[in-house]
Amino acid sequence: MTDTKPKLAVHKFSSCDGCQLALLNLGEPLLLLPQLVDIVHFAEAGPSDPVAQADIALVEGSVSTPEDIERIRQVREHSGLLISIGACATAGGLQALANFTDRDTWMAAVYEQPGHIESLQHSNPISHYVKVDFEIHGCPVNSRQVVAALRDLLSGVKPRPERQSVCMECKRKGLVCTMVSKGEPCMGPVTVAGCGALCPSMGRGCYSCYGPLEQINDRSLAERFNQLGLDRAAVARRFHFIANHAPAFKQAGERLKETTNE
Amino acid sequence: MNSQIHPSVERRPGFLPRSSLQTLFTVLLQTGYKIYGPQVRDGAIQFVYMDDPESLPMGVTNEQQPGHYRLTSGESRRLFDWNHGPQALKPLCFAPREVLWLEGAAPFAFKRTLPEVTQTAVIGVRACDLAALAILDQHFELEMRPDPHYRQRRDSLLLIGVDCAQSASTCFCASTGDGPALDGGYDIGMAELDEGFLIWHQSDKGQAITDQLELRAATDDQLEAMLQATTRAAGQQKRHLPGSEELQQLYKRLEHSHWDQVAERCLACGNCTAVCPTCFCYQVEHEMALSGESAEMVRSWDSCFSPTHSDMGHFQVRNNIKYRYRQWMTHKLAGWQVQQRRIGCTGCGRCIAWCPVGIDLTEEVTAVLEEGSLDV
């Protein structure tokens, strides 16, 4: 059995490493993982062979440099199934906020010699460059979801994406709606579950680390945020935040910005 | 419609002075019950385990509006002048998430997991929630072929109801015939007066407690005050649902343009169904351990607003918000009349208050029934 174990690689692109840490924080399942798969590349944990052939590649981070483009194409070529994990890999990440601004001006303001910086004009999700077989959302990802996806793949079935709202998780936990009881704007109603309603459990509104549901009613939520005291620019920033380049949030924020400029 | 002002269950209450409420708690605890009661938590009335009547929400009232819930504190010594928080009995009986059974691969075996329960006295339950519990009982077939998990939880409860002496602006139980006075489904009934409580039993389980309370005889004035309180509470209600027969017309309004208008506002977040005391939909998912050697079958609350709810293989029956809202309303108010012989709404108004964008069921149903033309 041991010599037929599937090979697993964990690749990192532009990111904070938080999703890899979510893997390292697995606890007991982490000890079990090497019995089930052959970890051929996971630099954060030890094994480093970025060009190794793998049956399953987990990819963290966004593509933000010319070198990243070459590397993700190589990963794609060397991998059976490619799974992007986390907000950077699936929706561009916080670094993609720069896509909405004049990057060169910012660069000149931050770096004395911006000419040394070799980065793309845009930070993009992995799926912008190569075919992605499955996406796991979150900032960081929930390790439970990663384990479930790996288990499904090892069993030869397609992983199931999370499709319910944060509100559902929130109510199952018996949490009190922050928007209704405190008037605090909360992205829960347009955000896909997975975090366990972490911010609402601390009495805060959701920041949508896990990105949009498959259908969102951004106009209605934006109007409600207006009534609760956020101006349109502030509402736009709620959509253009952690999952800013998820198409539904990108468009929602852009629509709000357009009406702000009118 | 307003049948609940004069309850059909006969009451023979005795009087317990306010200063003696501790006696009720002591008797319950000595009889072996844990007490589950209302407290102010995170800005809302929430039911939690407690053992001291001093921690009941004294002087607390609730302001409820569409998409809005706030508590206020006053000088009053009354303990039950609020109506409700987001939840009451539903999570106690129908767990938000629970493991139904365990599976093992070697040896291949299934093992049922029943919840561990403790005898629990729930104090402060309202008429709308008791009516809703009767509907849940029916759904989980408590009489005929009970869901074992539901039954285990349900059987552990001693229900102590309280008449509502005032209504929140979102309440409309008088129009559904479910409140504001208690009308069955409880073990012990209470009505709060300024000077104390009228208390009576409705079941043997309840009588075992009330017999130990040394209640005084209730005066005619106290009995009159009890009736007046619920009459006043019913009179405060401005919202109402149309009658059952009229609601059956909903199925003739499936193409009404108003559904589109609701869909423009509805977030399909599922909050209304989660706080609804009668919404019983659940999903069952197989959660396998990473080893592949064991698995859990997990049931958790679902919602007809979730995209997964109407998945049929690769086909989604209700693929937009309009269809989901329409499904929820027509099923609850019309479909249930066929399935459960009554509408699935008991007028608690939670779906109105806890909707993040304040969609008002009573307004929407009226608009659908009154405006536009009937489908052919």
Summary, kept brief:
The complex is a heterodimer of chains A (262) and B (376). Chain A is an alpha/beta fold. Chain A has 12 helices and 5 strands.
Summarize the structure in words.
The complex is a heterodimer of chains A (262) and B (376). Chain A is of the alpha/beta class and 262 residues long. Chain A folds into two domains: 2-154, NADH:ubiquinone oxidoreductase-like, 20kDa subunit (Rossmann fold), CATH 3.40.50.700; 166-261, no CATH class. Chain A contains twelve helices and five strands. The N and C termini of chain A lie far apart (65 Å). Chain B is an alpha+beta fold and 376 residues long. In chain B, the strands form four sheets. An eight-stranded mixed β-sheet of chain B has the order 3-2-8-9-10-11-1-12, sandwiched between helices. In chain B, a hairpin with a 2-residue loop joins strand 6 and strand 7. The model of chain B is unreliable at 1-5 (pLDDT under 50). At the A-B interface, helix 2, helix 6, helix 7, helix 8 and helix 10 of A face strand 5, helix 9 and helix 10 of B.
Topology:
The complex is a heterodimer of chains A (262) and B (376).
Chain A: E1 7-12, H1 18-24, H2 28-36, E2 38-42, E3 54-60, H3 66-78, E4 79-85, H4 86-91, H5 103-110, E5 134-136, H6 143-154, H7 166-172, H8 178-182, H9 198-201, H10 218-227, H11 232-239, H12 247-261
Parallel strand pairs in A: 1-2, 1-3, 3-4, 4-5
Chain B: E1 14-17, H1 21-31, E2 34-41, E3 44-50, E4 60-65, E5 68-73, H2 90-93, E6 97-105, E7 108-112, E8 120-125, H3 127-139, H4 148-155, E9 157-162, H5 173-176, E10 188-193, E11 196-201, H6 204-210, E12 216-217, H7 220-236, H8 244-247, H9 258-265, H10 271-275, E13 282-288, E14 294-301, E15 311-312, E16 315-316, H11 321-339, H12 350-353, H13 361-370
Parallel strand pairs in B: 2-8, 8-9, 9-10
Antiparallel strand pairs in B: 1-11, 1-12, 2-3, 4-5, 6-7, 6-14, 10-11, 13-14, 15-16
